[in-house]
User: Fold this.
Amino acid sequence: MSVSNILKAVFPAAGLGTRFLPATKNQPKEMLSLYDKPAIQYVIEEAAGAGLKDILIIIAPNKRSIIDHFDRNELLEKYLEARGKEELAKKIKKISEIARLHYTYQVDPLGLGHAVLMAEPFIGNSPFAVYLADDIIDPPPSGKNASQQMIDLFSETGSSVIALEAVSWEKVSGYGVVDGKKIGERKIKITNVVEKPSREEAPSNLTIVGRYIFTPTIFELLKNTPAGRNGEIQLTDAIQKLIEIEPVYGLEFEGRRFDTGDPAGFLEATVEFALKGEDSERIRKYLIELSKKL
Ligand code: G1P
Assistant:
């Protein structure tokens, strides 16, 4: 199967952002700015860069600022143009052209699995990609982004693909963890998944990163997945059932992953992106001075 078979993506963004309170009390965590751009924009750009232009964003009722961010703001564009800031005006206009975005509401926080299931009418009977905004992945220099690498593996196998990263053992309990058989330098055939195990129970230190490509079989499985951990319908539980009936592959993608779901990870990503931005020299000097005081 080729990329034309997975032209749609789902972006669950209805979570309450409890790891980031009070910042997220009244604003979506996806809209928090990593240096000068909201986190969600990095991820939408990654998907669009891999050719996935039809994206369903699943939002909670208090997250309308996500819709506004990707909408035109003609007043702002005209204001900037009138002051000779054409380049900035163009940059602002382009945000509304990154992808074709569609929205639906998840009113009750019933879990990631429930959010993905809500996408079924939008996706239909086709493979599709799922993106989680906490995970921001900086592509390798001059390389394919993580989504493109996953699509390549999907095209090769026609099976579901999950992004993986090896983390230190202290961190495994914060993620879905997989077990499997290595079939290539960065590829494994997954045999088992477990959501947020204790360090002792974790089958490996290979953890799930928030990028998935699923065959539509996942929908049927989600419909029959009872509430699990935290009383929520867990996507990982449905993935375990999927492994039992279809091959599921894991890809240790190339690129730097930041888990921006908590303030410390978010700050690390912000610093790294700032070092790539226009003020990089100023930030670099500041960090050098700061490190002398630490
Ligand atoms: C979710 C998934 C988990 C995965 C993680 C990646 O957890 O349930 O399997 O490892 O995303 O960021 P959450 O961070 O929503 O608790």
Observations:
- The mean pLDDT is 94.
- The longest strand covers residues 187-195.
- The two ends are 53 Å apart (CA to CA).
